Amino acid sequence: MAAAASSSSRAVAGGLYILFTLLCLVCLASSRIDDETLKNLKEDNQKIEQVLDNVKAKRAALSEFASKSISSHEAMIAFLEDLIEESSDTFLQQKGHLESNKGLLKNLKTYVDEQNELFDADMADIELKLGKSKKCLRALEEFQAEL
Q1: pTM tops 0.85
Q2: Which of 15, 91, 126, 138 could form a disulfide with 87 if both were Cys (CB 3.0 to 4.6 A apart)?
Q3: Model confidence over 11-63: pLDDT tens digits?
Q4: Dihedrals φ, ψ of 5, to 5°?
């Protein structure tokens, strides 16, 4: 009787081992990301990179345009100030308008600089997240290759 009980418990243990092994394989297979999903994730990541590069290029062109515009306006204001100083009293009343424009231009320059700093911070954050996403995709690819 003891031999029969011992044999029975080995059969149960063997059965549980097989069941456990099959359960592990099923869980592993169901948690595995499929090739198509991984491919789509990689494509999305590349599209984000392209959009980011495009935005950076447009931002650089826009920043250069704003800088050149501000510089040309500053030069024009300096020229007009010199012209007003050399001219008769009739143009002296325009000096107030010129000072007002200088103030507006200074505010605009400050605003553009602040926006550039915010944009740079946002781009750095996006690049950091994109880097993490690439690392995650590489890890998924390696994990999938091991299986």
Answers
A1: no
A2: 91
A3: 555 555 665 665 655 555 555 567 777 788 888 888 888 988 888 898 888 88
A4: -65, -40
